[in-house]
């Protein structure tokens, strides 16, 4: 009989109105790397929450080494040797690597810390698994990759046998990703069992031994990666065949729509400037992508461009007019549409209805406000219904649905409908597909290309490598607030892009 | 039935009723503890208020008194709820009320202004105080609660100092408006005859009701209300949409302050009360406005009823049997009830939880419920 490290058998977890997990079985063998694949909302997070005792399932059992166990809270999970690296690291920024690793299980004598002992254990572990870290560096000073290795060491320090990685590659450069893959294989070879949550098929094919697929809360199947292809995994995940590659014709760039000269924007986090002396141009009928790893100044660049933050210096010209000093409203009226990075923070008033959110950028115009200052409810409803129809925004009660109760994909569709329907000259799309499933991503990419083909200038800011390679006509790479390279997506490779993104390679770029 | 219970309006109403019942119950228990003998009679008197009187004419007159005092309370609660919809907690309402009192009394007694200029002056005074809080909030990032509380005390002592100039020689109270300058009294417009010649019932009553309706319309039907509520609900999104956040915060507090100042004029310009120049605590009218706003479910129309109710039981407190209880007991009872009025939100949340749980139980019974799209969704 096969030896399983952990088994979750026939787990069913219901919430009011939905079944988040419907009879799901997941069996993790000792020493294997097992991928858990599924779209957003497929039930991965719920399943992991059940494993960590945050939710109690209505049905099903959990077994460790063949023995049934009850997990009532995260401490029980910890006692069973289950550890997790979260997508967003749980580290104390101003502590050193070593302090973070021992946090919560500090070795002490009579209340005095025994750091030497801990240091030796950490160094031994990092040697054994090839996890390079500097134990005395502060978390805030080290790279994301090293922070992740700290998280992994945290699990190993606690002698965890079952390691869960929740979308670990989302924040890494291609080079760091291949390093992580190697580390995972080392860990598995040393007898650790790894559960790898992802929706990136290439990574699963490369590193995992087996793969369990969930779809809409249901268990679809478990396959050996040797015997399958990315295409069939994707079909299992989505339930239909998906076009991986974006279909588009060559671009025909026209007039310069947006021209930025020597833009510098201050950072809110530290004293230095987040965006340094950036110059670029976007023409009508082309999609320019600003690529880079998260936190290299892209957000601040967009804040400066949209007027949310003032510039330290520089000049922005839109269709020949200087808008450097223009207010957010003026820029919007002059033809900038902005699909914001964080749809909950900036994009929507979540407690407003869908129709009220659809007029968020245009409510003040004569179309929706009478000269006495009253809202024209009838025109607003008609307008909302047209947008809902045209952009296929789905919601429980149509125009009067509260935005908060809508799914992420439909919230994003609503924002896109609003911003595109404004008929902008320049469309700024910041991570427009973040957190969305494959179907919604396909839809959004089509919309961006349709805008390009309609002669609009599109500026895409993205962290997703696939998106960076597939959608734009031109790639600009941002590293530490500067543009370090301009690439042609047709001629470059992911590896070359990764070198630029990590700052290992740079050209002098002229706008 | 379930659907009706989910309706926010219905929920607000039920929650308010539950609060009132709980408040009266706790008040009764407190009375029982102090002296069980007169408890039942006293709590009934609190509820009955003016009905305690036997003659219908006296009843009507007392009803008029309660009504006259309800209007300033309504203004204060409108001030609170208006700011609250924009995400601001205007605890400075008490100070804005004091500023309004000071302005209208001084203008009436020292300068001999007639009623309308006095009224407008009171609104302006409250609005200025609101503007100070607004400026501090939007340009210096000072929390409106901190600056509001400080301004409450500043305005109290400023008012005491200024109004000492128009006080009676022998008492700490300001002079009678009807003796010094009757033109500053709000006109009755015939309303007094409806309430058995109660001269305190003035045009303040219809004016306050109209303003409550106006506030409701501004919040729900206009561009300004759309903008202000968006700022209150998500100021980042409001900024992203090009709304001027700082202007909106200041404007909101100016309006809120003006409402509170107007409330003060509606009380002092009836001549019902005089200002005591030695008082060392901020008048409770503003703070009671907070309770009235929440008891009314943060709706301007709801505030009309909740303000009346709170004033009703506050007045009812004076009919507590003083053979058994000290005269301050009325304040205790009404404050217990007002305190429990603050639990409206808590009761609403509890109601929703109960509805959710019974919904979940129902769901588990039919096995083949439709499969949803997953709970973990997008984060």
Quick description:
The complex is a heterodimer of chains A (511) and B (379). Chain A is α/β, with parallel strands linked by helices. Chain A has helices spanning 44-51, 74-79, 97-102, 115-129, 144-157, 174-189, 201-207, 230-238, 298-306, 328-334, 343-347, 354-358, 377-391, 408-421, 438-453, 465-470, 494-501; strands at 4-15, 18-29, 33-37, 59-64, 67-69, 82-85, 108-109, 112-113, 162-166, 193-198, 210-215, 218-224, 256-266, 273-283, 287-291, 313-318, 321-322, 336-339, 426-430, 457-462, 474-479, 482-487.
Structure description:
The complex is a heterodimer of chains A (511) and B (379). Chain A is of the alpha/beta class and 511 residues long. Chain A folds into 3 domains: 4-238, P-loop containing nucleotide triphosphate hydrolases (Rossmann fold), CATH 3.40.50.300; 244-335 and 424-511, Rossmann fold (3-Layer(aba) Sandwich), CATH 3.40.50; 349-423, no CATH class. Helix content of chain A is 32%, strand content 26%. Chain A is built from 17 helices and 22 strands. Chain A has helices spanning 44-51, 74-79, 97-102, 115-129, 144-157, 174-189, 201-207, 230-238, 298-306, 328-334, 343-347, 354-358, 377-391, 408-421, 438-453, 465-470, 494-501; strands spanning 4-15, 18-29, 33-37, 59-64, 67-69, 82-85, 108-109, 112-113, 162-166, 193-198, 210-215, 218-224, 256-266, 273-283, 287-291, 313-318, 321-322, 336-339, 426-430, 457-462, 474-479, 482-487. In chain A, the strands form 5 sheets. Chain A has a 6-stranded mixed sheet. In chain A, helix 6 (174-189) links the parallel strand 9 (162-166) and strand 10. The longest helix of chain A has 16 residues, at 174-189. Chain A is globular and about 70 Å long. The N and C termini of chain A lie far apart (64 Å). The mean pLDDT of chain A is 87. Chain B is mostly helical and 379 residues long. Chain B has a single domain (2-356), classed as ABC transporter involved in vitamin B12 uptake, BtuC. Chain B has helices at 2-6, 8-34, 39-48, 56-85, 93-109, 115-140, 144-163, 177-180, 191-194, 204-221, 223-233, 235-240, 245-268, 285-295, 300-316, 329-341, 344-364. Chain B is globular, with a radius of gyration of 23 Å. The chains are: A alpha/beta (511), B mainly alpha (379). The interface between A and B is large, with 54 and 33 residues.
